[in-house]
Predict the 3D structure of the following.
Amino acid sequence: IPFTINPLLTPSVSLTANNVCLPNATGVTLTAGPTNAGTSPTYKFYIDGTQVYSGTSPSYSGSVSVGSHSAYVVMTTSVACPTATTATSTTKNFTVANKSTYSVTLSSPTTICANNNDAGFYANITNVTGDLGTLSYQWYRSGSPVSTSNPYMAEDLTQGEIIYCRVTSNYWCVTSPVNSPSYTVNISSTVTPTVSIQVPKI
C-alpha cells in the first residue's frame, strides 16, 4: 500500500500595520505574512487585545479611534504535520492621527531706505493644530532659493524684489509645505533733513 510521509513543518506568521492619517485614510490595514500555512489557513486579528476579525482572509481593514494602538495576528495552519497548530505574530504598533496644519506669517521691515538697503525677515509659525515634528525653512528672493536660516538677512535689496519663506514639516501626518505671504521690496528715497532759522525783525 503506497503512503506518503509528510515533513514536520513549523508555522509562523508576521504582521504589517500602517499608520493612519485622517482624513486621507479611512482605517488601518493589517496584513499577515504566513509561512507553512497550508492550503486553507485561518486568521484571527487583534487590536489592543480585542479580536476584530476571524476568517480565511490574510488581511483586515477597519476604522480605529485616534491614538496609539497595537495589533497582532494568530494563524491556524492547515499543513498535515505542523509542530504547532497555531502561530502568533509579534505585536505591531501603529498610530491614528488627524492631519496637522499650520500657517506662516512674515515679519518684515516697514521701510527700506536707499542708503541702507539691507533688511531682516522672520517667518512666524501660527495657527498650529497637532504635531509638526521638525520644521525647515527655505527663503526665496525673486524666485531663487537664498537661505535656510530663520531669520533671514537680505543684503543689497532692489526695488520690486519678492521675498517669501517656504516652511516644511517632517511630521508624517501634516499639510506641508506652507508658504508665507510675499513681501514686495519698496525702496524709499533718502531724504536729507534741513533746518532754517528765521530771525524776527526788530
